[in-house]
Amino acid sequence: MICCVQVLLRVKPSVNSLYLDVSGSSVEQKIYIELKNTVPCVRLLNATHQIGCQSSISGDTGVLHVLETEADLDWILSTGPHPPYMVLMEATFFTRPTMMRMKNSTRVAGVAVINSNTTAVESFSPHTSCPNQNTGVYREDYGPDLANCSSTVWNPLGNSMSYEDFTFPIFSLKDDNQTQVMRKCYEDHNMRVNGSAPQYPLCAMQLFSHMHAVTDTVTCMRRAEVCDPLSDFNVWASIRPINASAKGHKNNESVVIAAARLDGRSFFWDIGTSAEGTVSGIVTLLAAAHALYPVTQEAPPVRNIFFTFFQGETFDYIGSSRMVYDMKQDKFVINLDNVHSVLEIGQVCTTTFPLFQVINLVDNIKSVASTLNVSLDEPNTTQALPPSSFQRFLRVQPIPGVVLADHKSSFINRYYESLYDTAAYLNMTYPSDLSPEEQMEYETEASKSLTEVATLVARSLYKQAGGNDRLLINITADAKMVSLHMLLYGFLVRSNNSWFITLPSLLSPESGPPQYYIGLRQDNSVKSVTRFVQFVMANATGTVTSLNQIQCQNPNDVPGESKDLYSYHWVSGPPSANSTEGDPYCVRTSVRLAKALSPAFELPEYGSREYSTWTESRWKTIRARIFLVASPQLEVMVLLGFRCRLDEV
Ligand SMILES: *[C@@H]1O[C@H](CO)[C@@H](O)[C@H](O)[C@H]1NC(C)=O
Ligand SMILES: *[C@@H]1O[C@H](CO)[C@@H](O)[C@H](O)[C@H]1NC(C)=O
Ligand SMILES: *[C@@H]1O[C@H](CO)[C@@H](O)[C@H](O)[C@H]1NC(C)=O
Ligand SMILES: *[C@@H]1O[C@H](CO)[C@@H](O)[C@H](O)[C@H]1NC(C)=O
Ligand SMILES: *[C@@H]1O[C@H](CO)[C@@H](O)[C@H](O)[C@H]1NC(C)=O
Ligand SMILES: *[C@@H]1O[C@H](CO)[C@@H](O)[C@H](O)[C@H]1NC(C)=O
Ligand SMILES: *[C@@H]1O[C@H](CO)[C@@H](O)[C@H](O)[C@H]1NC(C)=O
Ligand SMILES: *[C@@H]1O[C@H](CO)[C@@H](O)[C@H](O)[C@H]1NC(C)=O
Ligand SMILES: *[C@@H]1O[C@H](CO)[C@@H](O)[C@H](O)[C@H]1NC(C)=O
């Protein structure tokens, strides 16, 4: 038995020799296989509830059972002789009915869901059917007949699983070799043989995701260091600079707000792919800003155009409620009386999409659309607005506005706020022989149709801001520099692409898309979508200056420059033909960050019904591992007859 360990230590960790068969019996040494790439469901709290998942403080353990058939479910929930079970399942079984049966059973110790790219689930939305139901504009004093989605259930596929409180841990696992190891462990030890129960030793799994916070936000905020408000930053910019050091009403400033949201979520902690749900709107607005910028500098429209990307909208409109609150308190660079109108971009993915709500803005957009390859449709006037940041403006003041979306009534999106709302769902597939750089340059159907939408948005904004009609034709979302397919690629497929990495020198993106879950912004995460949008926006609407690095940090010393009006970024610049290092330079931009922390935590009113009260519990350990147990007391033993793994010994 000891020799097994010695043999293992001499084995090089190459793919084929990573695992070695172990023979013999009654080995006392503990051997665990730690599982990598796991993402837990964590506990979130609001004014009145806790939702999510947790394990006990020392982790929850159970005999592993792979859920593949209805009979397996029966085994887990009633007939199997070795409860509690740790359930390993493919995503197709991760449904509300199954999860609720497990929730109501004492025989389930936890669940691990295999998140594979190839699993095609017809539809899945763990979000609610009426998102942000209580924090939008419709309530007793405003359109009570439209409250609670009474006119339209926006997300009819929503099963609210993300809002359940599970008493056991639930993890997402990447589908890779380790799931094969788990299956093998299960097959070798836990499979029923001709209907009879398997014998010890059995393969077991242990999940650690103990959460410090309990009950609700009011309770956890009273105790130090157990939960934190969800918070990050909104990103805003304007085509004419606004003095950011002067707060409150600005005479002579009338702005058309162009808005999109930044965040999304899924059932699992920081996975939130949100391709149609969020990214479609982000890239459309970024491309529109880029298309608009040159024309607005040459022929400024009468009104200013104010771009804003709101964070935390998924969680009862954190970002927009904060900006509106700050505007109302004269703590923002403009106030509500400076707002002329609002154009918000919601989910926009197919080319036929209707327009929502009100006023002559619609006529402007219609007249622009008639010149483009975009068909517009207007919903009935009695229809409510879909969940949108604009509702938070309407909640305090009547302001004209529209929400652009690809759905006339209920969402078209079949994967709203789930981990399947991905690039693949938008049919963003690339010929397999393309290199990453070629993929970035490759135009997909999604990028073509969003480019049309971006042009529509850009021209409508210019027209709405009182720009010269004859120049509209010059505003076209670009197929060149900041092309929409590059944006889509960067935001949905790979953020460490050759373009993004040149933006600010401080940005060091990781593989994969940015993070769309709002998080706590404590680690100033370089993965956060906020930073990507900030820097892409700076690129799209900024000016390259001749300031050197020191001047870039202290531009106030340079005549003509002002930190009140602009922010300054030192950017690495694109690599030149004969050098991988870029030529760095200083970019002057109006792009700024503004706190996206709910006013409930400023006031503070942790029990607020007006503002978002969502907090995230703190935790110490997130871990998952499998091992063999020798007895019903779950005594740990070596993975007998199975394979022990080199780096665990
Ligand atoms: C808190 O969340 C729960 C679960 O989604 C919901 O039922 C409840 O209404 C929310 N409370 C408030 C005050 O919004
Ligand atoms: C997983 O297994 C396959 C086939 O055995 C192998 O090609 C691949 O490199 C392995 N991946 C990792 C991460 O070990
Ligand atoms: C299962 O049952 C079949 C037929 O009854 C028998 O041939 C087979 O040997 C059994 N397998 C085991 C492992 O007992
Ligand atoms: C911006 O506003 C502040 C406060 O009103 C003022 O002191 C400053 O001079 C202004 N800056 C510019 C460039 O106008
Ligand atoms: C508008 O609403 C009416 C009454 O509910 C309905 O008959 C009509 O079909 C709706 N029109 C559209 C375009 O949806
Ligand atoms: C993706 O392609 C399928 C099949 O061609 C089509 O039905 C679907 O509408 C497309 N999705 C989008 C978002 O364009
Ligand atoms: C960035 O992307 C390349 C693929 O082009 C990959 O090889 C590399 O590991 C990635 N870097 C990081 C830090 O993720
Ligand atoms: C934006 O990025 C492109 C490509 O790297 C670069 O050529 C351009 O100068 C950048 N513009 C600004 C204002 O940073
Ligand atoms: C890069 O190449 C250009 C022209 O090919 C040349 O003028 C320049 O000096 C080169 N730069 C470096 C750092 O070698």
UniProtKB/TrEMBL annotation:
<keyword id="KW-0732">Signal</keyword>
<dbReference type="Pfam" id="PF05450">
    <property type="entry name" value="Nicastrin"/>
</dbReference>
<comment type="similarity">
    <text>Belongs to the nicastrin family.</text>
</comment>
<keyword id="KW-0914">Notch signaling pathway</keyword>
<dbReference type="GO" id="GO:0007219">
    <property type="term" value="P:Notch signaling pathway"/>
</dbReference>
<protein>
    <recommendedName>
        <fullName>Nicastrin</fullName>
    </recommendedName>
</protein>
<dbReference type="GO" id="GO:0016485">
    <property type="term" value="P:protein processing"/>
</dbReference>
<feature type="domain" description="Nicastrin small lobe">
    <location>
        <begin position="40"/>
        <end position="213"/>
    </location>
</feature>
<dbReference type="InterPro" id="IPR008710">
    <property type="entry name" value="Nicastrin"/>
</dbReference>
<keyword id="KW-0812">Transmembrane</keyword>
<dbReference type="GO" id="GO:0007220">
    <property type="term" value="P:Notch receptor processing"/>
</dbReference>
<keyword id="KW-0472">Membrane</keyword>
<keyword id="KW-1133">Transmembrane helix</keyword>
<dbReference type="InterPro" id="IPR041084">
    <property type="entry name" value="Ncstrn_small"/>
</dbReference>
<dbReference type="GO" id="GO:0005886">
    <property type="term" value="C:plasma membrane"/>
</dbReference>
<dbReference type="Pfam" id="PF18266">
    <property type="entry name" value="Ncstrn_small"/>
</dbReference>
<keyword id="KW-0325">Glycoprotein</keyword>
